Amino acid sequence: MPFKLSIFRKNVLETLASSDETKVMHVSDTPESLYPFIDELIEKTGPDYVIHTGDLVDNVKLERRPDLLPLYRGALRKLAHILKGSGAVLYIVPGNEDDPGLLREFFGKAVVEPGTVVTIGGFRFALGHSLWDVAGLEADFRLYGHNFKLIERGLNGVLGVNFVLLPSGRTYRVKYPSGTDFDRGYRMWRGM
Q1: What dotted CATH number matches 22-183?
Q2: Where is each Calcineurin-like phosphoesterase domain found (predicted)?
């Protein structure tokens, strides 16, 4: 089901879709309800790289409810189908609500440890689930999620889907659909 796009979001997507630069797409803390939106963004923008910084099934809180592992597995299968079908190079960072073994089962060598630094198009990207995983690392971009806090040179995937265009280094954020934080289990914005 296509999402109704605001004029601003539509303009950003048109800019991203028409760019000849390398596109890095970054998401984090994604509830299952967000998967059609992610699929649509991938289809509209054609990213070369997709980086997920953890909590891939954020509506299932495995840290507190390990008995929900079958539900997590089913949702993870859906997201793996979307991300692997994108044709993009993937980097997947386990979050506190993830099962690292299942992530490796579905994503293989695309799974990297929090605090990993990768080079894409001559730029260094520090990847972590939380800001503490990347805050002290030397990098051009620090990608993370987990909470709503911001850090210097940081792109927080909880606040929206981030895109980095290379080699210009321009960044864009596409806001998540309304209700995403509720689907994550947040009743209000914490940490503000």
Answers
A1: 3.60.21.10
A2: 23-107
Beta-carbon contacts of residue 5 (< 8 Å; ≥ 6 apart)? 13
Burial (Cβ within 10 Å: 0-12, 13-18, ≥19) of residue 47: buried
The pLDDT value recorded for residue 176 is 87
Q: Which two tokens stand for residue 155?
A: 């792109």
Percent of the chain with pLDDT over 70: 92
* This prediction's pTM: 0.89
Residue 70: beta bridge partners? Answer: none
- Three-state DSSP class for residue 12: helix
**Domain boundaries in the chain?**
22-183
pLDDT single digits (tens) 29-85: 999 999 999 999 999 999 999 999 999 998 888 888 888 889 999 999 999 999 999
Question: Which backbone phi and psi does 32 adopt, to 5 degrees?
Answer: -55, -30
DSSP string, 47-85: -SEEEE-S-TTTTS-TTT-GGGHHHHHHHHHHHHHHHHT
Which of 56-60, 102-106, 136-140, 165-169 has the weakest average pLDDT? 56-60
Q: Residue 92 corresponds to which tokens in the numbers above?
A: 């997947």
Region of 34 on the Ramachandran plot (φ > 0 left; ψ -120 to 50 alpha; else beta): alpha
